[in-house]
Amino acid sequence: MLVSAAILLADRYGVHMILLINIRSFYLDGRKRQILFPVAGLLLTAGLLFFPVSPGPIILGDLLPAVTVLILVFNFTVVLASGDRVTSAALKNRLLGTFALITACLHFLFPSIVLI
User: Fold this and answer.
1) Angle, CA 57 vertex, CA 67 and CA 4 arms, to 5°
2) For 25-34, how does the pLDDT look when each residue is reduced to its tens digit (9 = 90+)?
3) Model-level pTM?
4) Which of 56, 58, 88, 116 is deepest in the core (most CB within 10 A)?
């Protein structure tokens, strides 16, 4: 979620944090990375749903992070399918990037809050 948020928020905050621009350019440089990113997201979603953090329930442990990753996968898949070359202009969804960043921070800092 943090990498996806960095890719989506690089235009807004890249002036102050060069690392965001580096992460986005690393993603945009390789076509294989752009294809493997949604596949890895689907695997991560399955992992979040079926192997939750220890205090969570066995089946649907991390529902909010899993849904966030699934929405990010859908967004990156739509952007990838919309054209033959993914550009930085297509990855300007600041609201989704902010939501992913907040969810990731809450999940890492307070894992019991986002658990169902």
Assistant:
1) 25
2) 888 887 888 8
3) 0.75
4) 56
